């Protein structure tokens, strides 16, 4: 027994000595300023964005009651569909569509009445009594949309007859972080233990982030990020199924002509334009496979990744103009109105 204890103590001592040497060597060979900083900034998304506020479970959220002449947020934290829309009780018999997603649902760069949810709301005849709630939040990932959807249903903020979900781009964007971790998708930082180690240990930081400031990798696919996206998508489908609410996914809008040849180059891995498009198709393929398994529609439109070249209808590579949003809304409306979604047939018999 004493011999076993002695061996354990000796092995621990050797291990600690090796780690100490590794730490010392890392500090001598690779000074702190030669190692890229770890992504660990909880205020990354809220800084200089007055319409955001900190949120304990979602990382950040829209600030209720915010208005700056372009973006208007109601008392429940949803973007309003127009300048004259006020908070009001839902009339008896009114049908409600809840549109979830990030900035392409929120309507980045366009007025309240120019978002795709606002256009969609105007396309239903008045006698149909269909309201569309804009649950889009700029910069949200699939993890945040999943959490937000559950929160909306649990708190009865909206009782939707249909949930539309449009989410992709921020998951791919965050996938280019070298120290990617699921927690980054919500709180913009890895878990506390990893942050502690990389803050206080040069050796750990080197292992996580590499050893050179400009060692940017190119076109490295992040399988863990795709796996998390797939898991979040499936959980959103399950949430809607458990609540007996029909759901549909909206194809993400994209214009390749707005993206430079070097593509996405924000964090530590650069995605060339062609690789970015290939990556998006890989994510969409997983989405379609899950949707087919659950019997959930994926709604196409003329601004989605099938077409790629729609520059006149985009402000940048990802965000449609007012006219682009109107075109999206028209295709979504026609998809619903033409009874292509089995669960919606009760709306239009």
Characterization of the model:
By secondary structure, the protein is α/β, with parallel strands linked by helices. Helix content is 40%, strand content 11%. It is elongated and about 85 Å long.
Based on the model shown, name its key terms:
Rossmann fold; 40% helix; five-stranded parallel sheet; 349 residues; 2 domains; 11 helices; elongated; alpha/beta; two-stranded antiparallel ribbon
Outline of this structure?
The protein has 349 residues and is α/β, with parallel strands linked by helices. Helix content is 40%, strand content 11%.
State the end-to-end distance: 80 Å
Beta-strand level of the residues, as a percent range? 5-15%
Strands, total number: 9
What's the arrangement of strands in the largest beta sheet?
4-3-5-7-9
**Which overall shape is indicated by the principal axes computed on the Cα atoms?**
elongated
What is the CATH architecture annotation of the largest domain? 3-Layer(aba) Sandwich
SS content category: alpha/beta
Helix content: 25-40%
Give the SSE map.
Elements: H1 2-29, E1 52-55, E2 59-62, E3 95-101, H2 103-106, H3 116-123, E4 130-136, H4 142-154, E5 162-166, H5 169-174, H6 184-187, H7 192-200, H8 202-209, E6 217-218, H9 223-242, E7 247-250, E8 269-270, H10 273-294, E9 298-299, H11 322-337
Parallel strand pairs: 3-4, 3-5, 5-7, 6-8, 7-9
Antiparallel strand pairs: 1-2
């Amino acid at each position: 027994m004493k011999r076993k204890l002695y061996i354990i103590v000796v092995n621990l001592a050797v291990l600690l000595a090796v780690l100490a040497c590794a730490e010392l060597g890392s500090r001598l060979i690779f000074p702190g300023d030669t190692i890229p900083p770890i992504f660990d900034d909880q205020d990354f998304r809220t800084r200089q964005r007055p319409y955001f506020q900190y949120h304990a479970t979602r990382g950040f959220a829209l600030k209720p009651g915010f208005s700056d002449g372009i973006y208007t947020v109601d008392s429940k934290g949803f973007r309003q569909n127009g300048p004259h829309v006020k908070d009001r009780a839902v009339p008896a018999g009114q049908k409600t569509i809840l549109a979830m997603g990030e900035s392409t649902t929120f309507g980045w760069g366009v007025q309240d009445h120019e978002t795709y949810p606002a256009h969609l709301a105007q396309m239903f005849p008045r006698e149909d009594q269909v309201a569309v709630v804009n649950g889009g939040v700029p910069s949200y990932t699939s993890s945040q949309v999943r959490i937000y959807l559950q929160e909306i249903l649990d708190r009865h903020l909206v009782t939707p007859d249909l949930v539309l979900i449009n989410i992709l781009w921020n998951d791919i964007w965050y996938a280019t972080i070298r120290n990617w971790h699921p927690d980054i998708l919500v709180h913009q930082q890895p878990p506390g233990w990893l942050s502690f180690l990389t803050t206080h240990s040069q050796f750990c930081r080197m292992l996580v982030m590499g050893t050179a400031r400009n060692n940017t990798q190119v076109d490295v696919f992040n399988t863990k990020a795709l796996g998390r996206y797939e898991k979040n998508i499936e959980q959103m489908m399950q949430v809607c199924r458990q609540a007996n609410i029909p759901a549909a996914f909206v194809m993400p809008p994209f214009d390749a002509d707005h993206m430079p040849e070097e593509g996405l180059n924000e964090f530590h891995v650069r995605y060339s334009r062609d690789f970015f498009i290939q990556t998006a198709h890989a994510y969409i393929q997983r989405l379609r496979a899950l949707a087919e398994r659950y019997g959930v529609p994926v709604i196409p439109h003329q601004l989605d990744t099938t077409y790629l070249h729609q520059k006149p209808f985009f402000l940048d590579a990802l965000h449609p103009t007012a006219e682009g949003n109107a075109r999206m809304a028209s295709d979504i409306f026609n998809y619903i109105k033409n009874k292509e979604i089995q669960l919606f047939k009760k709306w239009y018999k």
